[in-house]
């Protein structure tokens, strides 16, 4: 039987991730696809800690820790240096959380995308600044509790649509993916690996600590996010061609997703209904693009 996911393991045990960390799962799959001939740039984020204390590393490939806002530009510089040396095959990957992507790093990402630099930018999205204390980011969904949007002042406003922002740069490839669907994720990583130019992959990576969820529900939550249409799975080529990768035949209610997380428990019925209507409206808009 042909395996759909490579057996090789590059990421090493002994990392410092929390139990049930979706971000560590995402990295494991990414390294399986990109292989040892890869270089990572990681800004301030959970993975700056997960990797382990210097001089140790769990990723087992060359890794550059960089400032919060510079993962993309650091990757661009490394790629340019490798090109000068004739090292054309090495994969250069910027790996960052949602805070360093949606907020602090967006200017560097936009510049690298506009130049169409030959790097892959991967954001593992746990929907808040988890490493520094669960503060709200622009990836935090409407209604969610964080330490800076407490129960009486929960996050107001829709999550920033980062994939559409990147697609507006007309980059060769942009996609969403989930740790709950590893085959789809690995296919997209492989596709990005073989495309020249700037690639952007947005991976939903549940965080038990910040989501106030049981670690055993990490994959379940990642799957429910897709099944409720709160996180649709699709890809965009050259900013124009949309492909739906996971079709939801029977949409599950958002309450199925919320009930496993403490960060939404404060919401009243009418607030949940508002979120449900917003999700349905956004999904209708997206479906017209396929």
Account of the 3D structure:
This protein has helices spanning 22-34, 46-50, 71-84, 98-103, 106-115, 162-167, 182-193, 208-211, 218-227, 254-258, 269-287, and strands at 38-42, 63-65, 91-97, 120-125, 173-178, 199-204, 234-237, 241-244. With 290 residues, it is of the alpha/beta class. The chain has one domain (22-287): 3-Layer(aba) Sandwich (Rossmann fold), CATH 3.40.50.970. The chain has an eight-stranded mixed β-sheet, with helices on both faces. Helix 3 (71-84) packs parallel to helix 5 (106-115). The longest helix has 19 residues, at 269-287. It is globular and about 60 Å long. The protein starts with 21 loop residues before the first helix and ends with a helix. The model has no long low-confidence stretch (mean pLDDT 96).
Q: How many domains make up the coordinates? A: 1
What percentage of amino acids are in beta strands?
Answer: 5-15%
What Rg is obtained from the alpha carbons, in whole angstroms?
18 Å
**What CATH first level would be assigned?**
Alpha Beta
Assembly level? single chain
The residue ranges in which pLDDT falls below 50 over 5 or more consecutive positions are: none
Query: What best-fitting shape do the alpha-carbon axes yield?
Result: globular
Estimated structural class: alpha/beta
Q: Assign a percent range to the helix content.
A: 25-40%
CATH superfamily: Thiamin diphosphate (ThDP)-binding fold, Pyr/PP domains
The CATH topology is what? Rossmann fold
Main pleated sheet: 8 strands, mixed
Terminus-to-terminus distance: 33 Å
Mean pLDDT across all amino acids: 96
CATH architecture: 3-Layer(aba) Sandwich
User: Major sheet: order of its strands?
Assistant: 2-1-3-4-6-5-7-8
**What is the N-to-C order of secondary-structure elements (H for helix, E for strand)?**
HEHEHEHHEHEHEHHEEHH
Number of strands: 8
Number of helices: 11
